């Protein structure tokens, strides 16, 4: 177990996350050609952005898994499970669930822009779960803000101790390389493209104008402390340019040396650690139609404990009866391989036909329920109108599939025939329309809904029934059949809460 590193890369859009992902895969041998992550056609075998809308808009809208392994001196072979997360602000829900499945994160910051809103949001999710963070300040080969200004912003905005592990020798037109504090070597730009080609200059002379700031960077900030890092109180900071290969080796080395191996995961009866002998895990993502030719449906399971073997029977908490897992998948970039075994920390894909859902716990004895994978109240609600009314059945199937994945939530009103979809962000609506057409051959339009938000109703059955008697026009059922109050405004929620003190109007629903 100690040789597993399961981590995510978090960033604001355009900070360079996809490029860094590609360079990490390249250094681990998972891909063999720079540009494959962004390539088109047949060469796109190793991409993390594979959906049509992602290709068109150049953003990640799903979370992908990529596994690769590398040898490190003194540590043997380390297996990396890299979970690529949507950087776009409209995908906080899918991203949140992905971050429940990792043990650490790499935060990518653009040297010219510093901390941006999405970075802060994703950081807060990591903080909620005490996920330790390594910071990578990217694009130092371009004009950027002063190094101390960037460090102090990370420290102040995120309330973290920062520990720089190197220093850029100039930025933009004055860029002369990156100094590694641990070795004293400088990675130099080479060739007409001024990228790092592997030449490190040991005991390199430091330009006089930079000597003072390097001394201050080394002496003015806390030394790296692994305990403080793993408890989420300190972030080591690396500098580089993913595009030009600077800092990538230092970063992957830091993940191998310092990032935690599989950590205990919260469950109903107390946290479950990786040393538990029987197999346990939870589904944090479901993805339909990764291969449109086969209409496949993959549930992504984070292994929490035990050694999984192909063909094993596991019991999903939502089902109660065992299922045999005959064709589990490991993801090597965009290639897939059958997994004969998997250990705690690994992510395996389980093909299924709608049996497994986000939030399901799987175990050999059906005695585990992992917690902390909520649904969030949607912030945008729309009615779905079919262009061709004869496709009602296909639409119902598509909406159920996509709600299982967490792309949308679907609500079936108690009164009225038009179904309502709810999303956290606007872009999810574009993804919905795009995928309905591309994957289900259903043309649909989204129309305004009279409702602003939704709340799950919890409380005594009699109180729920009495409330329903007076408010049926504002009630719907979600995909699980649970009662949902469709509110026309936040004031509505407060008013109903006051009138019905024995009921709870909840903005989240634990899966």
TrEMBL record:
The GO molecular function terms of this record are: GTP binding; GTPase activity; guanosine tetraphosphate binding; translation release factor activity, codon nonspecific; translation release factor activity, codon specific
Looking at the record, the residues that make up the Tr-type G domain are: 2-263
Q: Name one Pfam family in it.
A: RF3_C
Q: Which Gene3D superfamilies does the entry mention?
A: P-loop containing nucleotide triphosphate hydrolases, Peptide chain release factor 3, domain III, Translation factors
Can you say where in the cell this protein is located? Cytoplasm
The residues that hold GTP are: 11-18, 84-88, 138-141
- What are the recorded Gene Ontology BP terms? regulation of translational termination
Q: Name one GO cellular component term.
A: cytosol
The coiled-coil segments of this chain are none
Q: Which UniProt keywords apply?
A: Cytoplasm, GTP-binding, Nucleotide-binding, Protein biosynthesis
Q: Which family does it belong to?
A: Belongs to the TRAFAC class translation factor GTPase superfamily. Classic translation factor GTPase family. PrfC subfamily.
Q: Which HAMAP family match?
A: Rel_fac_3
What job does this protein perform?
Answer: Increases the formation of ribosomal termination complexes and stimulates activities of RF-1 and RF-2. It binds guanine nucleotides and has strong preference for UGA stop codons. It may interact directly with the ribosome. The stimulation of RF-1 and RF-2 is significantly reduced by GTP and GDP, but not by GMP.
Name of this chain's protein: Peptide chain release factor 3
**What is the organism of origin for this protein?**
Croceibacterium mercuriale
């Amino acid at each position: 177990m100690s040789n597993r590193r399961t981590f995510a890369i978090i960033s604001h859009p355009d900070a360079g996350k996809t490029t860094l992902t590609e360079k990490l895969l390249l250094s681990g041998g998972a891909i063999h050609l720079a540009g494959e992550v962004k390539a088109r056609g047949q060469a796109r075998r190793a991409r993390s952005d594979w959906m049509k809308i992602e290709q068109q808009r150049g953003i990640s809208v799903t979370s992908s898994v990529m596994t690769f392994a590398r040898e490190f001196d003194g540590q043997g072979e380390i297996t990396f499970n890299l979970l690529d997360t949507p950087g776009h602000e409209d995908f906080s829900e899918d991203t949140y669930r992905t971050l429940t499945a990792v043990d650490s994160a790499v935060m990518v910051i653009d040297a010219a822009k510093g901390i941006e809103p999405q970075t802060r949001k994703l950081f807060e999710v990591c903080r909620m779960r005490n996920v330790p963070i390594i910071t990578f300040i990217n694009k130092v080969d371009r004009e950027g803000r002063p190094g101390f200004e960037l460090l102090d912003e990370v420290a102040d905005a995120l309330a973290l101790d920062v520990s720089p592990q190197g220093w850029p020798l100039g930025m933009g037109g004055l860029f002369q390389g990156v100094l590694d504090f641990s070795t004293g070597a400088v990675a130099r730009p080479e060739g007409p493209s001024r990228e790092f080609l592997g030449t490190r200059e040991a005991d390199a002379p430091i330009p006089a104008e930079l000597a003072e700031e390097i001394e201050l960077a080394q002496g003015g900030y806390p030394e790296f402390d692994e305990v403080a890092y793993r408890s989420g109180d300190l972030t080591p900071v690396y500098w580089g340019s993913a595009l030009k290969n600077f800092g990538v080796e230092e970063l992957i080395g830091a993940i191998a040396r310092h990032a935690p191996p599989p950590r205990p995961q919260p469950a109903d009866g107390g946290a479950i650690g990786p040393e538990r002998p029987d197999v346990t895990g939870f589904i944090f993502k479901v993805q339909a139609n990764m291969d449109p030719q086969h209409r496949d449906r993959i549930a992504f399971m984070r292994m929490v404990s035990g050694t999984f073997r192909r063909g094993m029977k596991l019991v999903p908490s939502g089902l109660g009866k065992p299922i045999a897992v005959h064709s589990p998948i490991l993801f090597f970039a965009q290639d897939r391989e059958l997994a004969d075994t998997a250990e705690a920390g690994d992510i395996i894909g389980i093909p299924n036909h709608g049996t497994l859902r986000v939030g399901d716990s799987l175990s050999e004895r059906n005695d585990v329920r992992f917690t902390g994978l909520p649904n969030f109240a949607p912030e945008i609600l729309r009615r779905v109108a079919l262009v061709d009314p004869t496709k009602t059945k296909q639409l119902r199937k598509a909406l159920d599939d996509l709600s299982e994945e967490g792309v949308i939530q679907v609500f079936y009103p108690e009164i009225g025939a038009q179904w309502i979809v709810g999303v956290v962000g606007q872009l999810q609506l574009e993804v919905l329309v795009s995928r309905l057409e591309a994957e289900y051959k259903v043309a649909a339009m989204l129309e305004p809904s009279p409702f602003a938000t939704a709340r799950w109703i919890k409380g005594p059955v009699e109180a729920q029934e009495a409330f329903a008697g007076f408010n049926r026009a504002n009630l719907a059922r979600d995909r699980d059949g649970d009662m949902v109050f469709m509110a026309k405004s936040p004031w509505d929620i407060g008013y109903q809460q006051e009138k019905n003190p024995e009921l709870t109007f909840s903005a989240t629903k634990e899966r």
